Give the backbone structure.
Amino acid sequence: MSLLRIYCSLKDPPLHCRWALVDDGREPVAGEGRLAELPRRAQRIQLVIPAAQVLIVRVQLPPAVRRRAGSVLAFAVEENIIGDPEASQVCWLGVAGESDVLAVIDKQGLTQWRDALGLVGIHAYEVHCEILLLPWRANEWSLAWDGREGFVRSGEFEGAMTDCGDRTSPPLTLRLMLDEAQASGGRPESIAVFPRVPDAAPDIGAWQRSLGVTTRLAGAWDWRTAPSHTGVSLMREQQRWRGFAALSSRLRPAAWIAGAALAIHSIALVTDWALLAREQRALRSQMESRFRAVFPDAVAVVDPALQMRRKIADARHVAGLSDSGDFPPMLEKVAEAVKQLPLGGLRTLSYESGRMTLELAAVDETTLRGIVARLLQSGLSVDTSSAASRPGSPTAVITVRAS
């Protein structure tokens, strides 16, 4: 069976793309060009979302909410994402242990690609994450590595991006993931490293000594050459039904059944939403009660979590201790994250009331992603934006806060 894979960066306009035509028993055929020039004879089509643009998280969900997408699942990952949950497309992948695994992608970017593909006549396809195309087997993690950074698949439905490393030093993210897996009893027996580019293979001995787990060098890997049966589908876009007018009389019973099913589904959805809203109110009431129990002199409680953090920070200051939102601790974390910038790469740095703003000059997207990943790994909340600059000198502004 022939399979067409289309590599879709949700941050780029859907004008052209890289693609690969995979046919079992034959060498894949790869290409790049406009959407209108894509091969048309494939029996299956997959959209491959880059690893850096998919967030995979573990949450606890009521059974009735599973296998749904949209605002209900977006509400479940509200604490794991930056920005409005409604701007994210959230998909249920499966169950890992006692937790549900969700994938979060940018809704607007996916909609733009869906519309662009529809204009060239492509309507039926699967959406896949690059991370979950990696080979995986029980008790072993798989790491795709380009010599500087990569991504790891740690389970059937789980994986994440890594920060930077080198030939002799594995990424810090990978060590932290191993420590977390050790604490939960899920530490792998080995790690298979798949080089993504030539000469990207690390020093396996040095990595193994640093990670404390058996590390082996697997074959080269690329999303273009991954077997057609691998991967976990995030969602499916079905072919639009045509010729409905001519078949309306034959489809009328099915329409009544579909209407009844839709009504039942709507009732179930409203019920689930009401249950989630009630749980949210109960949690907020519990937080407010605990806050008033600790601080009975508080006049008003608007945001108990935020007010509790501020009270704790004040108490630490009175005791002569620094808080995570103070200038010295934040400066130490920021300095560690931007230490690989070239001379003059950090243009300005300012601090005010637990918020630190960095203006970076002449920074490319890969370097910026690495800095953001390290800041997030250090426990800071991060917002990024672009700023006006001289021609040929791209500038980025990063705002960090203590989580």
Summary: Residues 287 and 304 are 6 Å apart (CA to CA). The two ends are 48 Å apart (CA to CA). Residues 240-246 have pLDDT under 50 and may be disordered.
